[in-house]
Amino acid sequence: MTCSLQLFVCLATLAGAALAQAATDQTAESTASTSSPVAYVYVARPTHIDGFAASSRGKLTPVPGSPFSNIAVSHLSVNKKYLFGPGDNGGPDCGGPDPVCSWDIYTYSIASNGALKQAAVINPYKYGPTDCFAVGPTQIDATGTTLYNDALNCDGDDQYVQSFKIEANGELQFLASEDSGAVEGEGFLSPMVVLGNNKYAYQTGCDGYGPSLEVIGLKRESNGAVAHAGSLIESPKGKTPEDIYCASGVLAADPTDHLAFALQDTNNNYAGPIVLASYTADSEGNLTTKATYENMPSSGIGFIGAMSISPSGKLLAVGGGGQNVDSGPGFQIFHFNGSSPITHYSAVLQPDISFQQFAWDGDNHLYALGGGKLFVYTVTSASLKEASGSPYSIPESSSVIVLTK
């Protein structure tokens, strides 16, 4: 009888503890979902935008009015008050003499609850150069006062960056158009990336005639417009003189004066893995690196099409698709160490999915978009965990942007 009574008391105690823990977890989850969001997350689709409020645990819930229909934009950008995106209303014959390409840039105001409402629209085509045929991606500077638009030239030999001042009502005031200086044989340059210190911006590519690493430097003027700076760049030291690195066409900037490059050795017909290098910009915008063939970490991604550095500047997300040597699709996290070499952190995550874009909020959440899904991870320098509810199915999604509250 004594043993039976003790066993009953023990089981009852355990059951009570389990119920108490479940109630605590449920209360915590409820509190997290009803408390003020830490960020608003927006995802573009062909006909609308999905808007979400993110809790401190990374749980996403639709904001009022979401999905926002009849909004066909991509390459999203955001500041504290407005969301911007190029429309897809261009004509089919963008190479002809008539200005049939009306790729507008739309502005949407962001309400206190995350809801969107159109505030303005502008057609950047009329500001020249007149032979541009495509708009975007767009990017906003670190102060949130200037929007930059990457415009492509019809013959493929040039790219331009258009600068717009963001007015208080969300309208865009044209400032200047600057030739990026792309050359024939180089192909299209990467989208422009602004340094965290807001002094310089960069585009990169690979001169196929060299081959050689090409970087275009752009200096921000006092009014926010960018002008060609002709920056110098060091190429990482290779094992042999034949080891020449070219950029894969994507860049990421940290909150200060560092950039992450995805590079590939052109020796043996680009047969090697993609490696990662950190660069530091000096006061004149010139880029230097400590990266060599011995300390650049290799990526497990076949082709890197997206990179993003966390707001802390300590983590780098890289992802893409394709197949290269033993690499394939998916995404990875690396330690980003400023001017010091980048170091490995995670294995390849979601290896069956090609990823197209990343975004971070200020609460250590990484938003990874790929395969018609939005994945949410909580990532610090010491831990990595997928958030509850992730992934979220968002078919045909093309772009994600985060507004940290």
Could you describe the 3D structure shown?
By secondary structure, the protein is mostly beta strands. It has a domain at 183-352: YVTN repeat-like/Quinoprotein amine dehydrogenase (Methylamine Dehydrogenase, Chain H), CATH 2.130.10. It contains 2 helices and 30 strands. The protein has helices at residues 2-34, 267-270, and strands at residues 39-44, 48-54, 60-62, 68-69, 77-78, 82-86, 105-110, 116-122, 132-140, 146-153, 159-166, 172-179, 193-194, 200-207, 212-220, 226-228, 245-253, 258-265, 274-281, 287-289, 303-309, 315-321, 330-335, 343-344, 355-360, 365-370, 373-379, 384-386, 392-393, 399-404. Strands 1, 2, 3, 4 and 30 form a 5-stranded antiparallel β-sheet that branches. A hairpin with a 4-residue loop joins strand 27 (373-379) and strand 28 (384-386). It is globular, with a radius of gyration of 23 Å. The termini are far apart. 43% of the residues are buried. The model is unreliable at 1-33 and 91-102 (pLDDT under 50).
In short:
The chain has 405 residues and is mainly β.
- CATH architecture heading of the domain at 183-352: 7 Propeller
Calculate Rg over CA atoms: 23 Å
Task: Please report the first level of CATH classification, the CATH class of the domain at 183-352.
Answer: Mainly Beta
Overall 3D form: globular
Total count of helical runs of at least 4 residues? 2
Provide the CATH superfamily of the domain at 183-352.
Answer: YVTN repeat-like/Quinoprotein amine dehydrogenase
- Helical content (DSSP H or I, runs of 4+): under 10%
Give the tally of β-strands.
30
How many strands, which pairing sense, and closed or not: the largest β-sheet? 5 strands, antiparallel
pLDDT < 50 runs, ≥5 residues: 1-33, 91-102
Mean pLDDT: 84
Summing up helix and strand content along with how strands pair, one would put the structural category as mainly beta
Q: How far apart, in Å, are the first and last alpha carbons?
A: 61 Å
Task: Enter the CATH topology name of the domain at 183-352.
Answer: Methylamine Dehydrogenase, Chain H
Task: Estimate the strand proportion.
Answer: 35-45%
